[in-house]
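A reminder from the course coordinator: this example appears on the midterm review sheet, so study it carefully.

Given structure:
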């Protein structure tokens, strides 16, 4: 029987009940949701709608970042026939207010950061949705009586205009896209069992229909797992792909371009770029398996399960597509618009049409008008634009929707995207120049990190202007000249501008904001340099963190008084800068920075100085965990017994505590870990990961080149034994703590308790040293109980030069666990924990 609404697919959530459906990245932690947990929350939200008197056809706004709670809210609305109005997480309160007025919304479901907005609506917070809905039963909710013509959602897009425009998507629109894909997927289900579950890293916002297809509609057909994360840092993306054993990355072209640049940057830093280019040239035309073997070093970085990119939202340049295709990955492009419920055409993963956006999906027709514009009609075309109680038609002219895009169709039925019709540059000779063709030629030049080609007026006619982001100190004139040699005479660029920042301003889907780029370019070309704060990446970061546009980002602007950065804002800015520029910033130096000039100076000094620390993830898994358990009873506990068995106070404080916990302890000597572990109950003691000096650990893991060979071997054995038997991991003192915190979060996700010595070094007086503010950052990130621990008596034994203590001379005090509120000040947390340890 043919499905009538999206709710007919709810049975898949029941079928895959215990399988992992979603993984949410929250700060440094990963929160995992099963299919049944998501469905239970959807049922509870449906009951919440009933309680608030929200009925079929009423509108509910969802405003927040991707999460399992977002999905459950969407499904809960669908079950009740309530119309979802999804909004970009980066949308402004003003835009949200105007949308709410247009649709006469009855409820706002938003993330905590948006909860203070002035939209006058009842609201529910996404961040703690399970707690808010815990009063409702999780029993099955019978879906509303729905037909394909019923509205599922209204997707608002503002484009470059100020007035919101809502596209009405019905259940039938979505089903018309799901069903042909479901039919094709069914042919390969027997092979999917070999790699189950298929894991999708979805970097597209759920507020966009394409993001919903790869985040909600398609994964449930396979029982797949969807992973959400906020960071778009290439290093973070690669790390997630490998650690989570991701199969498919879902992203916009900009992300693929960034990953390509990262691979080339890493190879260049290792002195292997020339050798890679030789392999790359030799791999052309080779069989897929042969290419996979040639580039096995790249596949090792991404993990052996990763095999495909799904790319949409914009056109992918041929250079990037060819790059990853040559490496042995499938690059699957699709094409569509919100008005066509995202999909018009899509490439088959095993029958790729290189350079194309695939073949037209079943159930829709596509043709080109005389100007080359793509026209489409069929069940996927949206019902209309929202206009209160009366819909404004999307399609006219016998049901054909004019996409505004230019295309080409080859003899095999592959569709090629040629660019936006309105972006075509018409030269003085009357020739049409497509910016995408020029951008492709520019991106083939190794000095070009990114580019945008715009039309600028010249003597009453249009001329193509290249806006470039270049590597190092490349000569833009030579870059443009080489690109021009690959173009026809009428396509050649005679005007260029080097963008003064590290990246272009971008939308939520990472598309360059061409209207702003064009304005800035024109201002510079005529010598005015009119330059809005929002074009400055530092200003963009501050705006995102504080929620307000900074009035002054001049070099002498003070971070606190002029830019309004609180201590927590500074911590977030530190992380954002490390993500963007892929460097490690000294926490101490960053704390001392007072002005924008100080930050810019730090960035110049640290550029290219990222230190690589090695984190022994194998130490968290079997069989090392068994070896460590045996070593605890055969080696560590007997050693502590000989050194001086401690008295333990406060163990009862852990009686009702469920792990994992974060333990903070004073630091006296290298044997502190043994005494703390001995004092803990068995359920905590056998699963402890301990932070140690990162710089010292890295010297053992990677000894200096001039160190004698045998001593190198000895150092590495010490490092391996420390990681295996004591489960220690590096925590750098000066810079690079972010990766260490991520490892600690990963260990906590696996059920390990984390032991930290926040003083950062051994005490020399017997008194507590000031706790470093990094412990406050980690406490905010992990969101687990924090247990203060203090060791007494060991310093006196150490000062006396004795190796052994009398029984009971050393004592371990375990304090009362504490959990700090959301967004607590890291420095205040550090001071409070210092006090708690001293009085434990």
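Designed residues:
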């Amino acid at each position: 029987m043919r499905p009538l609404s999206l709710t007919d697919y709810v049975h898949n959530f029941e079928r895959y009940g215990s399988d992992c459906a979603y993984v949410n990245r929250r700060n440094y932690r990963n929160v995992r949701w099963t299919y049944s947990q998501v469905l239970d929350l959807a049922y509870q939200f449906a009951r919440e709608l009933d309680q608030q008197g929200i009925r079929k056809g009423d509108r509910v706004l969802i405003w927040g970042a991707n999460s399992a709670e977002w999905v459950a809210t969407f499904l809960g609305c669908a079950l009740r026939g309530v119309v979802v109005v999804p909004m970009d997480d980066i949308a402004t309160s003003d835009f949200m207010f105007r949308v709410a007025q247009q649709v006469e919304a009855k409820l706002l479901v938003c993330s905590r950061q948006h909860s203070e907005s002035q939209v006058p609506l009842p609201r529910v917070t996404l961040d703690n949705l399970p707690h808010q809905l815990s009063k409702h039963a999780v029993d099955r909710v019978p879906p509303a009586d729905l037909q394909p013509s019923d509205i599922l959602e209204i997707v608002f897009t503002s484009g470059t205009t100020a007035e919101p425009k809502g596209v009405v998507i019905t259940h039938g629109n979505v089903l018309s896209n799901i069903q042909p894909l479901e039919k094709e997927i069914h042919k390969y289900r027997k092979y999917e069992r070999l790699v189950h579950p298929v894991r999708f890293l979805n970097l597209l916002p759920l507020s966009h229909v394409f993001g919903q297809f790869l985040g909600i509609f398609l994964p449930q057909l396979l029982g797949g797992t969807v992973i959400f994360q906020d960071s778009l840092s290439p290093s973070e993306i690669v790390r997630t792909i490998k650690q989570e054993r991701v199969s498919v990355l879902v992203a916009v072209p900009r992300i693929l371009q960034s990953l390509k640049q990262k691979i080339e940057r890493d190879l260049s830093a290792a002195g292997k770029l020339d050798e890679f280019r030789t392999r790359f040239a030799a791999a052309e035309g080779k069989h897929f398996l042969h290419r996979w073997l040639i580039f096995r070093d790249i596949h090792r970085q991404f993990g052996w399960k990763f095999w495909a990119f799904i790319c949409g939202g914009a056109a992918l340049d041929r250079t990037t597509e060819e790059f990853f295709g040559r490496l042995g990955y499938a690059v699957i492009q699709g094409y569509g618009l919100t008005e066509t419920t995202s999909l018009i055409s899509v490439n088959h993963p095993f029958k790729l049409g290189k350079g194309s956006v695939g073949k037209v999906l079943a159930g829709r027709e596509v043709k080109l008008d005389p100007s080359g514009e793509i026209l489409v009609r069929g069940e996927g075309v949206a019902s209309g634009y929202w206009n209160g109680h009366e819909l404004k038609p999307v399609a006219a002219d016998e049901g054909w929707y004019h996409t505004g895009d230019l295309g080409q169709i080859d003899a095999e039925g592959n569709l090629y995207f040629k660019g936006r019709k309105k972006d075509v540059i018409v030269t003085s000779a009357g020739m049409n120049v497509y910016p995408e063709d020029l951008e492709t030629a520019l991106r083939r030049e190794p000095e070009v990190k990114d580019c945008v080609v715009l039309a600028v007026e010249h003597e009453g006619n249009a001329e193509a202007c290249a806006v470039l982001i270049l590597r190092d100190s490349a000569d833009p004139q030579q870059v443009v000249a080489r690109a021009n040699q690959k173009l026809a005479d009428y396509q050649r660029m005679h005007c260029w501008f080097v963008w003064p920042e590290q990246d272009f301003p971008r939308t939520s889907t990472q598309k360059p904001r061409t209207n702003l780029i064009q304005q800035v370019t024109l201002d510079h070309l005529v010598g005015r340099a009119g330059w809005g704060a929002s074009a400055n990446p530092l200003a963009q970061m501050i705006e995102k963190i504080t929620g307000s546009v900074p009035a002054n980002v001049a070099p002498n602007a003070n971070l606190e008084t002029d830019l309004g950065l609180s201590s927590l804002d500074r911590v977030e800015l530190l992380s954002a800068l490390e993500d963007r520029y892929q460097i490690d910033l000294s926490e101490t130096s960053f704390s001392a920075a007072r002005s924008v000039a100080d930050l810019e100076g730090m960035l110049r000094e640290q550029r290219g100085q990222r230190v690589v620390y090695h984190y022994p993830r194998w130490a968290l898994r079997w069989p090392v965990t068994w070896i460590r358990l045996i070593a605890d009873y055969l080696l560590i506990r007997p050693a502590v017994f000989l050194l001086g068995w401690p008295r333990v106070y406060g163990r009862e404080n852990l009686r009702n505590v469920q792990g994992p916990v974060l333990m903070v302890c004073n630091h006296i000597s290298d044997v502190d870990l043994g005494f703390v572990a001995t004092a803990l109950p068995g359920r905590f003691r056998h699963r402890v990961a301990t932070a140690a000096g990162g710089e010292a650990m890295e010297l053992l893991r990677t000894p200096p080149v001039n160190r004698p060979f045998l001593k190198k071997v000895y150092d590495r054995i010490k490092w391996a034994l420390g990681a295996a038997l004591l489960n220690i991991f590096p925590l750098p003192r000066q810079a690079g703590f972010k990766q260490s915190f991520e490892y600690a979060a990963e260990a906590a996700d696996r059920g390990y308790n984390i032991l930290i010595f926040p003083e950062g070094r051994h005490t020399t007086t017997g008194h507590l040293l000031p706790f470093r503010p990094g412990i406050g950052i980690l406490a905010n990130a992990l969101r687990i109980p924090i247990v203060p621990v203090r060791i007494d008596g060991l310093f006196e034994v150490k000062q006396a030069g004795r190796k052994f203590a009398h029984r009971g001379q050393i004592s371990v005090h375990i304090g009362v666990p504490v959990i700090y509120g959301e967004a607590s000040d890291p420095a205040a947390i550090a001071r409070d924990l210092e006090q708690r340890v001293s009085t434990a």
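The two ends are 66 Å apart (CA to CA). The first strand starts at residue 20 and ends at 26.
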